């Protein structure tokens, strides 16, 4: 997306980093550049407002669910592996082992 106007920071760059901006997960200097861009570019400001509203709605509607302790531990363990630079298995390490496949069809498969 581009509004067609020249900006110091291109619209596509701003929108590529919109969630980092929304979540305050970027350096302050980069945040300042995006704020300046929003002052100059109403289409990007509108997109920001829309994404901010969606984020608030999701938090309000879905932010009260408790995460199961075992799932939280597995996810945090996987994040630790990634951060430490260790090889992370390609398969889903959070999934329970699958039951052996049966050659007998279930009543629903017949």
Automatic annotation (TrEMBL):
Residues 94-110 have a biased composition (Low complexity). It comes from the Bacteria. It holds the Pfam family zf-HC2. This is Anti-sigma factor. Residues 11-44 form the Putative zinc-finger domain. Residues 86-110 are annotated as: Disordered. InterPro entries: Anit_sigma_mycothiol_RsrA, Znf_put. It comes from Streptomyces antibioticus.
């Amino acid at each position: 997306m581009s509004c067609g106007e020249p900006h110091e920071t291109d619209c596509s760059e701003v929108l590529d980093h919109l969630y980092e901006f929304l979540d305050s997960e970027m350096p302050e200097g980069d945040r300042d550049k995006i704020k300046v861009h929003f002052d100059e570019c109403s289409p990007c400001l509108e997109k920001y407002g829309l994404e901010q509203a969606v984020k608030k709605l999701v938090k309000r509607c879905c932010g009260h669910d408790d995460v199961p302790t075992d799932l939280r531990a597995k996810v945090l363990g996987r994040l630790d592996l990634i951060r430490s630079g260790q090889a992370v298995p390609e398969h889903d390490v959070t999934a329970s082992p699958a039951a052996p496949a049966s050659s007998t069809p279930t009543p629903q498969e017949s």
